[in-house]
Amino acid sequence: DTAVSQTPKYLVTQMGNDKSIKCEQNLGHDTMYWYKQDSKKFLKIMFSYNNKELIINETVPNRFSPKSPDKAHLNLHINSLELGDSAVYFCASSAGGQQETQYFGPGTRLLVL
Amino acid sequence: GQNIDQPTEMTATEGAIVQINCTYQTSGFNGLFWYQQHAGEAPTFLSYNVLDGLEEKGRFSSFLSRSKGYSYLLLKELQMKDSASYLCAVRAGGYNKLIFGAGTRLAVHP
Questions:
Q1: By the CB < 8 Å criterion, does B48 face chain A?
Q2: What is Dmax (Cα atoms) for chain B?
């Protein structure tokens, strides 16, 4: 029983295309996140939603649009893909409370050709 | 600005002890996390410190000094499966925002 799941695991596409990545968590958490991990392995926060409300929106090109249909799902849509978008995208979720540990999904490896 | 520094790579021998350091300069501080990430996998939570001192969890311990902006992760009785990247992350600012260091790649040799 997977806690945080993402689809697809791998995504290879051409420059200029539009693609979506889906994330679901069955932990009952209120908050979900999208991170980008580049080739240098830096993990950077992109967005966060709490109960379907956007609460963190880092400096990300507006070609990236997150959508949260309910608190268990957070999807990421990317328009007009560019070579520099190639990376691993991780979804994460956390409950409330003082510690609020974030639990990560398995990642989506995106390669833009 | 936000800055988190860790050594890029470390090597150690099976059965030994290794200490991975992390220094940070962030605007705001509300806790420090250590994550382990095996190649091609997701980061997994190891430890959390918000007060100064040592937190011990089996073979892994983590230390925090807020006045020095410094933490370390101590791994004892190293095993081959401990070969992984270790990510230091500071919670700074609101909304549980984590700022990650670049990670330390640890190689454990027989």
A1: yes
A2: 43
| Inter-residue long-range contacts of B49-57, CB under 8 Å, 24+ positions, other chains counted | B50/A98, B50/A99
B106 close to B12: Cβ distance less than 8 angstroms: yes
Bridge partner list, B44? B36
Type of residue found at B44: T
pLDDT digits (tens, 9 = 90+) for B34-89: 999 999 999 999 999 999 999 999 999 999 999 999 999 999 999 999 999 999 99
Q: Which residue do the tokens 């892994």 mark?
A: B60
- Give buried/exposed letters for B69-103 (b at 16+ CB in 10 A, else e): bebbbbbeebeeebbbbbbbbbbbbeebbbbbbbb
Pick from A100, A108, A109 the residue to mutate for testing the B interface (most B CBs within 10 Å): A100
For A97, which residue in chain B has the nearest alpha carbon? B96
pLDDT by residue (tens digit) across A62-73? 999 999 999 999
Interface membership of A5 toward B (CB under 8 Å):
no
Largest CA distance in chain A: 43
Asked if A59 and A70 touch (Cβ cutoff 8 Å), the reply is no
Structure tokens at A24: 């679901």
